């Protein structure tokens, strides 16, 4: 069968635990097209939602998320991801809400001596979509202070923007407030032969 180049699919289902957690919206991110705006729709009192999502050439990958602090779509075994395939005009996708305790972290970032433009620092959970950007303040040469809110008990990678030669150890934070100092080191230079 021919696959339509682009069509709109009505995706609906239930978000278990949404009402109890006070989660009122769910967002869908197109994983195949980073320029596509996420689609956000309401979740009703029974946990039901319906969203119009694009499917391109019969195969488009999506991830679901919620923005309420302290909660997330359960992403164990990638349960937050799904693929729209074929030509059907409708699809059913059910999700569950999981607790995502918040860790408020702050500290010093040191060791960055050369920056091209403005430094940005973000924390990436390899299992999740997107990253958490830290609020930065410059303290002196190569030294910054930062604050960020991340999910507790998740192993984050540290990503430097405009300081590509540097890397730092990742971290895991406990719920509540904690101080995590980050030391940047020059990446091992790989000899190009």
Strand content: over 45%
Task: Give the distance, in angstroms, between the N- and C-terminal Cα atoms.
Answer: 49 Å
Q: Please report the number of helical segments.
A: 1
| Major sheet summary line | 5 strands, mixed
The helicity comes to under 10%
Report the radius of gyration as a whole number of Å. 20 Å
Show unreliable segments.
Answer: none
Shape: globular
Compressed to H and E, one letter per element, the order equals: EHEEEEEEEEEEEEEEEEEEE
Average pLDDT value? 92
Class by alpha and beta content: mainly beta
Write the layout of secondary structure elements.
Blueprint: E1 6-16, H1 18-21, E2 25-30, E3 39-42, E4 48-56, E5 59-65, E6 71-73, E7 81-85, E8 90-92, E9 95-99, E10 102-110, E11 120-124, E12 132-133, E13 135-140, E14 143-151, E15 155-161, E16 166-167, E17 171-172, E18 176-179, E19 182-183, E20 185-186
Parallel strand pairs: 1-8, 1-9, 10-18, 10-19
Antiparallel strand pairs: 1-4, 2-3, 2-5, 5-7, 6-9, 10-14, 11-12, 11-15, 13-14, 15-17, 16-20
């Amino acid at each position: 069968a021919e696959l339509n180049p682009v069509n709109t699919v009505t995706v609906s289902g239930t978000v278990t635990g949404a009402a109890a957690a006070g989660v009122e919206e769910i967002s869908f991110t197109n994983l195949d097209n980073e320029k596509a705006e996420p689609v956000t729709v309401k979740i009703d009192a029974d946990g039901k939602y319906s969203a119009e999502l694009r499917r391109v050439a019969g195969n488009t990958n999506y991830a679901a998320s919620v923005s309420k602090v302290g909660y997330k779509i359960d992403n164990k075994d990638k349960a937050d991801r799904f693929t729209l395939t074929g030509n059907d005009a409708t699809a059913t996708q059910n999700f569950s809400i999981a607790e995502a305790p918040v860790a408020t972290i702050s500290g010093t970032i040191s060791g960055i001596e050369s920056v091209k433009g403005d430094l940005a620092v973000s924390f990436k959970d390899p299992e999740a979509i997107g990253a958490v950007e830290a609020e930065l303040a410059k303290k002196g040469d190569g030294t910054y202070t930062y604050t960020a809110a991340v999910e507790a008990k998740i192993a984050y990678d540290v990503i430097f923007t405009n300081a590509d030669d540097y890397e730092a150890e990742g971290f895991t934070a406990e719920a509540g407030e904690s101080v995590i100092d980050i030391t940047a080191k020059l990446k091992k230079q790989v000899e190009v032969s």
